[in-house]
Amino acid sequence: MKNALDILNLDSIRAAPLHTDPFPYMIIKNVINPTFISQISETFPTIKTRGSYPLNALSYEGAFEKLIAELQFPQLKKVIGDRFAMNLDDNPCMITLRGHTAKKDGRIHIDSASKLVTVLLYLNQGWQSNAGRLRLLYNKKNLDHFAAEVSPEIGTCLIFKVTANCWHGHAPFIGERRSIQLNYVTSDKAADHHLRRHRLSAFLKKYLLKNDEKASTTY
Q1: Rg (alpha carbons) of the chain, rounded to whole number
Q2: What is the DSSP letter of 8?
Q3: CA atoms within 13 A on the CB side of 2
Q4: What is the secondary structure of 148-173 as a DSSP string?
Q5: CA-CA distance, 153 to 141, in Å (whole number)?
Q6: Which candidate, 199, 125, 115, 134, places its Cα nearest to that of 172?
Q7: Which residues contact 119 (CB under 8 A, 6 or more apart)?
């Protein structure tokens, strides 16, 4: 029996327009069941520094834990594969979280070739800033030449196929900016490589933060 999805709205992905210029992407604004919005926001794990964190570097429970489980269900992979005309059956998924961005974040880039599809699910209530809105770009030089702009409001989801020209970035935003990034990758080896790097980075950030907090309480 397939696992039941209560939080994710797969019909919203099935119905979303698929754009192909400048690369294949979809923007879905109602991918989360509204009943769970508050619970997910309340159970988002504590992240005090910038950067991407692998799941095993964080503690979480409740509705957020259920959301993470549903993101790994095969039904979601099948729907996304169908929409992008890709067979992802044998491709593992990799999930990382972000809680904050700093001045250096948002620089224009493309995702690595070992990633096949990127899913960005945003979890920020009442986003107001013009900064921090992800732009899908026509080139690697001009942040103002964009095909679409995505506000990181809670429940908004961006899905795009990783291509040689999937340029994206956002104006710098300093502060809390919550997101989940799910990638379907080429192999388990590729997933392990990315997660090891994120795990080391998360450890170093926590170590530095702990030392900073200790120093701030020293008289």
Answers
A1: 17
A2: B
A3: 11
A4: EEE--BTT-EEEEE--TT--EE----
A5: 26
A6: 134
A7: 71, 80, 157, 158, 159, 180, 181, 182, 183
Q: What is the pLDDT along the chain (219 residues), one digit of tens a residue?
A: 467 899 999 999 999 999 999 999 999 999 999 999 999 999 999 998 889 999 988 999 999 999 999 999 999 999 999 999 999 999 999 999 999 999 999 999 999 999 999 999 999 999 999 999 999 999 999 999 999 999 999 999 999 999 999 999 999 999 999 999 999 999 878 766 666 665 556 545 544 444 443 433 333
How far is Cα 178 from Cα 125, in angstroms, rounded to an integer?
9
State both tokens at 113: 């070739």
Q: Measured between alpha carbons, how far is 54 from 113 in angstroms, rounded to an integer?
A: 19
Q: Domains of the chain by range and CATH?
A: 10-212 (2.60.120.620)
> In sequence order, which ranges of 72-187 are alpha helices (DSSP H)?
74-83
